[in-house]
Amino acid sequence: MTGAAHSYPTQAVVxxxxxxxRLRPYTDDRPKPMVEIPGTGTxxxxxxxxxxxxxxxxxxxxxxxxxxxxxxEWLDRTQLPLRVTTVVETEPLGxxxxxxxxxxxxxxxxxxxxxxxxxxxTRFPLREMAAFHHERDAAATLALARPRIxxxxxxxxAFGHVIDFVEAPPSPYLINAGVYVFSPAFTELxxxxxxxxxxxxxxxxxxxxxxxxxxxxxxxWRAIDTAKxxxxxxxxxxxxxx
Length: 242
Known about the structure:
seven-stranded mixed beta sheet; about 25% helix
């Protein structure tokens, strides 16, 4: 966010190298981000690229891994809403190392950038998140979601009497939603190999340089990890026209 206060990131990294073992058999012949949301005819990464373009992103670097050729083939035959560069790690670098490697292919290294995990299906105003990041002068900002607990909850009073049953209530805890805004200097803070969530993020948190942006009320967010997530995403699409 160098320059004017209204200058928003226009470049992003999408981490799309996961094997998606919990999504089998859907991922037997394709990488996880290439799994289609039932009823849309579009893979998860297609929804992501459309969203990023709607939010002003003009260039995306996609970090590929498992079955990368399937993803590349889809990119080659699809009319995309932004410019895309794909990179493949020649050896496993870990999440932080992979993110740093992909960031090296961003067209404007001296500007802020977004990053997103390739298995996230969401819609919220990225520009508002970027403004939040800028106001706090953070090195990195992560989006925070409050997912629903997949079980029914039981409420009790002070004496141990059951007073209510609540089906799939929101979690009392915020979680990392897998969407980020990073400053230009953040890239050099990433490890060459390893997990930034165990190294870089804790360090920035201690230094008060890591910000957390709660997703706006009503914003749609879902991590696609299992077949059940696919089914529920399709149901939500039908019910709410996501």
